[in-house]
Amino acid sequence: MIPDKSGNNTQGSAQAAEKMGSFNLFDPAHFVQRVIRNWYWFVILGFIGYCISYVYSKYYAQRIYSSSLSLSISSNTASYFTPNQSINFIWGQGGNQDGVYLKKILLSRSHNEFLVKKLNLITNYTTKGLIKTTYLDQEDSPVFLEIDKSHLQQVNYPISIIPKGKNQYEIILPEEGQSRNLYNYNTESVESVSSYARPKNRILNLNEWYESPNLKFKLISNPNPSNLGLDNIIVTLVPVNQAVNSIIGSLYVDFDKELSSIMIITKTGYNLNNTVSFLNNSVQELIKKRLLDQNMVDKNTVEYLNENLSLIRKKLDSSGAVLNNLKINNRLFDMENIDSKTLGKLTDLETQKAELLTKINSLNDIRNSVGTNSIEKIISLNVAGIEDGSFTASVSELKQLYAKRREMAQIYTPNSEPMREINRLINEAKYTSQDGLRKYFQGYNNKLSDLDAQIGKIDKELVTLPEKQRIFLDAQRGYNIIENTYNTLLTEQAKSQMRVATNQSNLNIIDNAKNLGQGPIAPDVNATQMQIMGGLLLIPLVFLLIGELLDNKIRNLKELLTATKIPLLGVIGHNSYDNNLTVLEEPKSSISEAFRAVRANLRFLFDEEQKSKVILVTSSISGEGKTYVSINIASVLGLSGKKSVLLGMDLRKPKIFGDFKINNKNGISNYLTGQAELEEIINHTSIPGLDVITSGPIPPNPSELLMSDNNMKFIERLKEIYEYVIIDSPPVGLVADSFELIKKADTTIYVIRHEYTEKHMLRMITEKYFNKEVSNLGLVYNDFVVKQGYGYGYGYGYGYGYGYGYGYFDEDKNYKEPTITKIRNKLKMFFNKK
């Protein structure tokens, strides 16, 4: 990049002016380079993550298994307690209502509590290895633990059983953790006891009771033990409610997408055999309960019909005897004076009335069963001549509410809010059920009134009959009504008995749950491994990202030039030598060559015809290397045969005298205050063409001295003596002195230190340069170190010390890399080869 001699390098548009000195908040390319440079952190943390995930998955992660059972639900039978396919009263939806009902049973507390007690699922069996605990099925254990439910037991208290041979087992209890709050399995409640000492460990024989204040159990041999060869068995008792909730939480019921009458029941757990056993037992119990429910109503109906038939039979016999007596005594065997058509109509009407009265009586019995909490004794609605899915569903709901109330009564007091709420729901269900019957009662009563009216009309026609014939007719009509009622009940009895004899469960198992060696469904080891490794890899990435966002240092040469548009005079590498006299003491080093490149580029900022030139070196803040740059710029000018003088005008922090080993007793501050002559403050160096004037003692008023007319005249006087006057000035970002000195300078060198100068500090000098308040300005990029992955791609020819690596120049052979840097470079070379 060749500096523009005019000093207004490619500036013009207002939009460009707004962007001058503005750096991007985030540089993606630099961030990627930073990530690449720190690759070893990702390798280390990735390896650590892999090790952690491996140990976790192998020794700590509990595998979760799943087994499934498929069940077919046919619609050939239904009762009040098994709603049919057409019911949409309770659940508010069409489709497989019977399946929805069964799903609720499978997930109900009552069903699963029954299984917990039947299968003894209040005991959890595990075994512990060196690190990991493995869950067992009951059948995996060589012994079963049987508790005395009349004795209080401590739950969630691990009991270790160690086989000792010869049917003996050592019982080991925890050193701590015995509780005063013990569980009563009969009442399913917690009771408090007095304090007691820790129960002792002991050797226990099979079928021998172990008794302590908080435990009472014995060990029973498993007739079909597994061949696992367990070193220990750990049994933990759990409350019934805890066991039930755990099971319900692990059950999933769904329906086949193509055929909704097929139910898929799935259970998850830490042991596959345990899930298989539970599913098969659960469905078998459901089938038994289903068949019992289906038979219950028909059996109740048969019993009801038997009772009524017995009563009707007596009435029929009595009525028949009366009719026979009339025939014998009055010698009447037919009704000759009555029109046969009228008599047939009368007989038909009375037959209808008899059937209707039978239905009304049956309906009354059904209503009484619902109203008096005798649902278990309810009879079939078919006896009342009704097919009503809504009523059937409401009775099913009522039964479930009664079962729920029985469960809640064990926990809540009668006047508690939950009990009041369940009673309210029961009353609502009762009203709904009875309301469904009212319309049938109304319809039957209306029909009965109509039949009575028709019969009444015929009775009026028969008033003219002789008295004997009327008596005989009334007796015959009564007999016919009772006979018709009897025949109707016989028909319903036959139907109910047939249903009882042929009833089968409408549930059929398609596929039982089986242990087919299914692998675990969780945890996802690969996903867990990726999450752990990803989480650890994210740590350095986040730190690097935060560092990138908070990093306000100049680290990117390309970004610097793009943002400032100020000419670049050269790039100076990192000074690894003991002092600032690099050009004098190491003239053949790469850094010395870089300063010569800066000297060559300075001519583009000068007026070639100008006899004497003033070069001012400044920076944003202290520590950026302006003194180092000014010393070496002066050195290369002096070595080139140019008569030069170096001025230490940073009166607040004088430095130059130390590098040249000059006494700072007399300097610029003495001269400007009239305490010394010019000849007294000029110091000659080992370079014939280079003199140095130090700052002198620190004055109380450095700004006034630097901006005084005496100082301006001092510089003009030096210009008459020297070809180059190099001024080491104060930082422009801290004091205003340098801006006054810049006005007297022919060229200003602005020093920026790599990874030290902050971006915002360049805003001011960039604006002044863009507004032409400062002309003939050039940048020197100092202390630049090549880092693998930066890839700036600059080939300006200025920075021999940053593009070729150490060793290109003779003096650089003595450079010693730190041990850590050597190791890192070796690794980089190795992986680059790969």
Tell me what the structure shows.
The protein is α/β, with parallel strands linked by helices and 834 residues long. 47% of the residues lie in helices and 15% in strands. It contains 25 helices and 23 strands. Strands 16-23-22-17-21-18-20-19 form an 8-stranded mixed beta sheet, with helices on both faces. The protein has a 6-stranded antiparallel beta sheet with strand order 3-2-12-5-6-9, with no helix packed on it. Strands 13-14-1-15 form a 4-stranded antiparallel beta sheet. 31% of the residues are buried. The model is unreliable at 5-17, 84-95 and 788-815 (pLDDT under 50). The chain crosses the membrane at residues 39-57. This is non-specific protein-tyrosine kinase. Its EC number is 2.7.10.2. InterPro entries: AAA_dom, Bact_polysacc_biosynth/exp, P-loop_NTPase, Wzc-like_C. Keywords: ATP-binding, Kinase, Membrane, Nucleotide-binding, Transferase, Transmembrane, Transmembrane helix, Tyrosine-protein kinase.
Output the keywords:
single chain; 834 residues; alpha/beta; eight-stranded mixed β-sheet; six-stranded antiparallel β-sheet; 47% helix; elongated
Map the helices and strands.
Blueprint: H1 14-19, H2 28-37, H3 39-60, E1 65-73, H4 97-106, H5 109-118, E2 123-128, E3 133-136, E4 143-147, E5 159-165, E6 168-172, E7 181-184, E8 189-192, E9 202-205, E10 209-212, E11 215-221, E12 233-237, H6 240-249, E13 251-255, E14 262-269, H7 272-330, H8 340-371, H9 389-409, H10 417-461, H11 467-502, E15 507-511, H12 525-550, H13 557-564, E16 568-573, H14 582-585, H15 590-602, E17 613-619, H16 626-639, E18 644-648, H17 656-660, H18 668-672, H19 678-681, E19 682-684, E20 690-693, H20 702-706, H21 709-721, E21 724-728, H22 737-742, E22 747-753, H23 762-770, E23 777-784, H24 800-803, H25 819-833
Parallel strand pairs: 16-23, 17-21, 17-22, 18-20, 18-21, 22-23
Antiparallel strand pairs: 1-14, 1-15, 2-3, 2-12, 4-11, 5-6, 5-12, 6-9, 7-8, 10-11, 13-14, 19-20
Helix pairs in contact: 2-12, 3-12, 5-6, 7-11, 8-10, 8-11, 9-10, 15-16
